[in-house]
């Protein structure tokens, strides 16, 4: 019996080797750190990006079993200020999607550091070292501390991440398969605040209709029961050939109990940002228009960004891919 993988599949799987560590087990703890690059400090920021892998190794290697990782994303405006050569085809500013009270807002953000580990202290320590290294080249605009809640649940009480693609499908969904940016990815981040008073006043049955899955067992509602404007229903997306278009998510809850400010930090990686943007259109505008995602009756996006996640080698050797601004 010939058990060898077909060459195209093998080639596709090898993409992961040149990528940053996008595909990691669901994080137990995260720091989502967003900064802007200060005017005139672009080349300093390029230099500092080259030190990110070393800083990650310095913090992470001492306790390797805690799986510290840091994925770096670069926003469209920052890219044009930091590099003058080749640029990724689909990198653009995050588009504002929706209208009225349901808007996926676009907010400032030049660089994203998606820091993950099984222990929060390691994430925090790496964030400290990163900010020290970048110094006055950047201004932090958002730092969200995400924590794993119970059995992978969001603060709405539902298990989040179940239908993430796995193995080959995850690789194919997340990474640019070929060309000069092979192994690159695009990541969308949004910080959502939840109205938990309103949510908790809603019956469990109605909550399940909002999400499209059972709350306790996490089993998907059957056809005929699941609503097209449930969160799961709104996020079904298909290519022209009928195949499902997917993204790789690693959302985490965050919160401040006394300030009653809490929510979900959404993070979704895709080989083409238009996949995630299309999902957002279906959520915020609806398919058909007006049939918007019911989760938005309880959740408000307060940030929104799109970044290119370059292949791993880019950080230390950007000149092999493009021309760093001098
Ligand atoms: C308010 C913030 C959000 C919360 C609390 C949330 C929570 C959830 C939950 C509980 C599920 C079901 C279990 C699972 O498969 O993971 C789910 C599924 C999903 N979510 Fe979200 N999510 C949020 C935002 C988003 C956004 C902004 C997108 C896309 C842009 C998105 C895309 C998806 C997709 C693709 C699925 C899987 C659908 C399927 O079953 O095929 N989510 N989410």
Automatic annotation (TrEMBL):
Taxonomic lineage from the root: Bacteria, Bacillati, Actinomycetota, Actinomycetes, Propionibacteriales
SUPFAM superfamilies: Dimeric alpha+beta barrel
Entry's family note: Belongs to the DyP-type peroxidase family.
Organism of provenance: Propioniciclava coleopterorum
Protein name as annotated: Dyp-type peroxidase
UniProt xrefs under Pfam families: Dyp_perox_C, Dyp_perox_N
Protein keywords: Iron, Metal-binding, Oxidoreductase, Peroxidase
Domain Dyp-type peroxidase N-terminal span(s) in chain numbering: 21-148
Keyword Metal-binding on entry: yes
UniProt xrefs under PROSITE patterns: DYP_PEROXIDASE
Residue stretches spanning the membrane: none
């Amino acid at each position: 019996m010939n058990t060898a993988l077909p060459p195209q599949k093998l080639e596709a799987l090898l993409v992961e080797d040149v990528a940053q560590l996008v595909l990691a087990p669901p994080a137990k703890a995260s720091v989502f750190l967003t900064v802007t690059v200060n005017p005139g400090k672009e080349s300093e920021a390029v230099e500092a990006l080259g030190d990110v892998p070393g800083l990650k190794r310095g913090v992470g290697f001492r306790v390797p079993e805690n799986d510290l990782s840091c994925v770096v994303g670069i926003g469209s405006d920052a890219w044009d200020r930091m590099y003058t050569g080749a640029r990724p085809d689909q990198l653009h500013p995050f588009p504002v999607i929706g209208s009225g009270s349901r808007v996926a807002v676009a907010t400032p953000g030049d660089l994203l550091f998606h820091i993950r580990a099984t222990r929060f202290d390691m994430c925090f320590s790496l964030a400290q070292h990163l900010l020290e290294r970048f110094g006055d080249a950047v201004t932090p605009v958002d730092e969200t501390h995400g924590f794993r809640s119970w059995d992978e649940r969001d603060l709405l009480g539902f298990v989040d991440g179940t239908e993430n693609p796995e193995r080959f499908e995850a690789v194919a969904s997340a990474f640019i398969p070929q060309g000069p940016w092979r192994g690159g990815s695009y990541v969308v981040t949004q910080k959502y605040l939840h109205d938990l008073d309103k949510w908790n006043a809603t019956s469990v049955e109605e909550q399940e209709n909002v999400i499209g899955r059972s709350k306790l067992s996490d089993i998907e509602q059957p056809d005929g029961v699941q609503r097209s404007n449930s969160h799961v229903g709104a996020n079904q997306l298909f290519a022209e050939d009928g195949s499902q278009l997917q993204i790789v998510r690693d959302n985490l809850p965050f919160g401040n109990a006394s300030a009653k400010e809490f929510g979900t930090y959404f993070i979704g990686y895709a080989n083409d940002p238009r996949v995630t943007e299309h999902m957002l259109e279906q959520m915020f505008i609806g398919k058909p228009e007006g049939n918007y995602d019911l989760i938005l009756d309880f959740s408000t996006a307060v940030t929104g960004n799109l970044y290119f996640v370059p292949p791993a080698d880019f950080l230390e050797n950007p000149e092999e891919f493009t021309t760093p601004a001098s």
